[in-house]
Design goal:
The chain is of the alpha/beta class. It has 2 domains: 195 residues, inorganic pyrophosphatase (n-terminal core) (Alpha-Beta Complex); 117 residues, Diaminopimelate Epimerase, Chain A, domain 1, CATH 3.10.310.30. A 6-stranded mixed β-sheet has the order 6-7-8-9-11-10, sandwiched between helices. Strands 2-1-3-4-5 form a 5-stranded parallel β-sheet. Bound molecules: manganese (II) ion. This is DDH domain-containing protein.
């Protein structure tokens, strides 16, 4: 059955009947992605389901988030041997952002595929495709699913669900908070320290060398006050996750509308761009990123390109100018 609607009862039936479930997010995972996978994992485990997350957990974000509670690992190369009944695909937007070995596994073993994603509809696929960009994060959708199917949410999953919301809304700085979302937050804060834990995660702790490097990055930020565009452009190696911290910091600039982070990969010559919108941003960054084959959300998107850094900055400025005129 192909559907754009969330058939909660139907998903529940499939979970109940399943023996082995695989959960996959997108490559280059962020907090919402990791939080979604881990929250669903914990809930399915509490339902006594056989479940694995399709990841080798190479990216440090997995360890940062899960700490000592990282799930048991099944090698990506032996995933097909696991013979899943159901595969959940979470928070990925485009089919090519799913790991190739997961796509291969789906081809080979023909499991029932359920997509849950708050990105705009792009090339998501499956037997159930629940895609709704009115949700701020995929964890918000999962929370709704869990309550609709009356699944028990284990303590640890509370924190994962909150993490997705905090990560994708920038602690509510760049997405609207609905009453429903705040009710969800209210329900999930049980110990009282969840939000502190999350804020510590988002603002990573650094050693002295990293701290100096971070200072240099901040000092290199250029700012166009007439447009409200902040740019950080780097060619050197930085620790994983530091780009995110720089972006959060840039959003503190008074009057900032768009923050652009550019990183050049020497080997391939590609620039990787992340763009974040602040409160008064009117430029649809998802649409902008799509010009380069990238994507994301209205206020947060990314793309890769072989164009020069200067050219990318020029194009962002041009788009911001055009948008000011038209809006
Ligand atoms: Mn997300």
């Amino acid at each position: 059955m192909k559907t754009q609607k969330p058939y909660f009862a139907f998903i529940k039936q499939r979970i109940n009947a399943a023996h082995r479930i695989i959960i996959a997010g997108h490559t280059g995972p962020d907090f919402d992605n990791v939080g979604s996978c881990l929250a669903l994992y914990e809930v399915l485990r509490a339902m006594r389901k056989g479940v694995v997350i399709a990841s080798d957990f190479h990216e440090s974000i997995w360890r940062e988030v899960a700490m000592d509670k990282l799930p048991n690992q099944v090698k990506m190369s032996s995933l097909a041997l696991y013979k899943p009944d159901v595969v959940f695909l979470l928070d990925y937007g485009k089919k090519e952002k799913i790991d190739a070995s997961v796509l291969w596994l789906i081809e080979q073993t023909k499991p029932f595929v359920i997509t849950i994603d708050h990105h705009e509809y792009q090339s998501q696929f499956g037997d159930i495709v629940w895609v709704d960009s009115a949700f701020v994060s995929t964890t918000e959708m999962l929370h709704m699913l869990f309550s609709k199917i009356k699944a028990r949410i284990p303590e640890q999953a509370n924190y994962y669900l909150l993490l997705g919301v905090w990560g994708d809304t920038g602690a509510f700085a760049y997405q609207r908070a609905s009453k429903r979302l705040l009710r969800m937050v209210n329900a999930l804060v049980t110990q009282g320290d969840e939000i502190q834990r999350i804020m510590e995660l988002l603002h990573q702790k650094m050693d002295a060398d990293e701290f100096r490097l971070y200072g240099k990055l901040l000092a290199s930020i250029s700012y166009d006050a007439s447009l409200g565009l902040g740019v950080c452009k780097i060619r050197t190696q930085i620790p994983e996750g530091m780009n995110r911290t720089v972006m959060y910091e840039m959003k503190r600039i008074k009057g900032l509308r768009v923050a652009l982070f550019l990183k050049r990969f020497a080997k391939t010559g590609y620039w990787k761009a992340s763009v974040w919108g602040a409160q008064h941003n009117v430029l649809d960054l998802n649409e902008f990123a799509r010009r380069f084959g990238g994507g994301g959300h209205f206020n947060a998107a990314g793309f890769k390109t072989k164009l020069s850094g200067a050219k990318i900055i020029q194009m962002v400025k041009q788009a911001m100018r055009e948008n000011c005129v038209s809006s």
